[in-house]
Amino acid sequence: PVLIDVRKDQDFGDDPRLLPGARRRGAETVAAWASDLRGKRAVVVCQRGGSRSEGAAAWLRAEGVEAEVLEGGFEAWRGGAGLLVKTDALP
Known about the structure:
The chain is α/β, with parallel strands linked by helices. The protein is globular, with a radius of gyration of 12 Å.
C-alpha cells in the first residue's frame, strides 16, 4: 500500500522523520490529491491514529481508494521501534 503521512506541520516539525516509503500530504487538502490514488491501497498515518487520519481515509475510500488507518499512528510506530527515515537524508 501507499503510506500517507497526514501529521500536522507542528507534529512533523517535532519529529521530521517518516515511515519508510511514506509521502507527506495535508489532511486538509485531501480533496486535491485523493484522485491520484484511485484504485490503489493506502495506509494513512497521523500522530496518534485518530480523527485526522480517519477523516482522510474516509475521503480516500469515497474516491475509490482502499484506505486504512495505522492504529496508534506515528507515535505507536515510533514507540514500537519501527524504522523511521530522516527526511534530510532523502534525495
